[in-house]
Design goal:
about 0% strand; mainly alpha
């Protein structure tokens, strides 16, 4: 059995292609919007990770400085005790 032949007028074909163009335009816009959103989320994530790493480094530096100050204070106390014993 042969399939029926569909005859479309020029107006119907133009309408169909116009609808296809609109759908394609919507799809392109959705892809563009999704990529923009993805980039914004990725950038925000990278900035957050960088800020957390920076804060961690600052905390480590602060801890190192405190430990160094404590070692220096102990060294001075020990030196003073040694001096006091000699007297």
């Amino acid at each position: 059995m042969a399939s029926p032949i569909h005859l479309h007028t020029n107006a119907e074909q133009e309408e169909l292609t116009e609808e296809q163009r609109m759908q394609e335009g919507r799809r392109m816009f959705q892809i563009f919007a999704a990529r923009m959103f993805e980039q914004r989320v990725l950038t925000a994530y990278k900035e957050k990770v960088a800020a957390e790493r920076q804060q961690k480094l600052l905390d480590e530096l602060e801890e190192d400085e405190k430990a160094q100050a404590q070692r220096e204070a102990k060294k001075q106390r020990d030196a003073q005790k040694k001096k006091d014993k000699k007297k």
